[in-house]
Amino acid sequence: MHVRLKKTSIREVLYGLFNTFKTEFSMRLIFCCWIFMSAAMYIFNFNYFEIAITIMLLGLITATELINTSLEAVVDLVSPNIHPVAKVAKDTASAATAIFSTISFISFSLITINKLMEVGLI
Q1: Domain coordinates of the chain in residue numbers?
Q2: Rounded distance, CA 23 to CA 35, Å?
Q3: Residue 21 has pLDDT above 70, yes or no
Q4: Do residues 107 and 53 lie in contact, with contact meaning Cβ atoms separated by under 8 Å?
Q5: DSSP secondary structure code for residue 44 in this structure
Q6: Which of 107, 98, 121 is nearest to 50 (CA)?
Q7: What is the C-alpha separation between 97 and 99, in angstroms, rounded?
């Protein structure tokens, strides 16, 4: 019984990830960031601390986008018609994702610029 529940849970997790990837452009951009930063970590030989920070930030961006997508789905379900309060909820969740993504981008840029300076490219 427990194995069956675990398989179902994993299936639901993967469905949520793939559905968000299919329907949300921002999730596809986040996926591109995962690829880009993975390449940067390899090329510039990030240390363990830089790798940990990068993975943590990318994971949190992904989680924030998943929460934003789920909140938008719930708002659409509860309020199918355009409503000012529903708009505030959706816009606020999107703003949270945008702010976190911007802060993460700045952090990634600082780490990468530091690495470029270390190898003498800047």
Answers
A1: 2-118
A2: 19
A3: yes
A4: yes
A5: T
A6: 107
A7: 6
List, for residues 42-100, the tens digit of each pLDDT value: 988 899 999 999 999 999 999 999 999 999 999 989 888 888 888 899 899 999 999 99
Q: What is the CATH number of domain 2-118?
A: 1.10.287.3610
The structure tokens 């909140």 sit at: 71
Distance CA 91, CA 24 (A): 15
* Consecutive H or E run containing 99: helix 84-118
- In the predicted model, what is the mean pLDDT of the chain? 88
What is this structure's pTM?
0.81
Contact predicate 61/100, CB 8 Å: yes
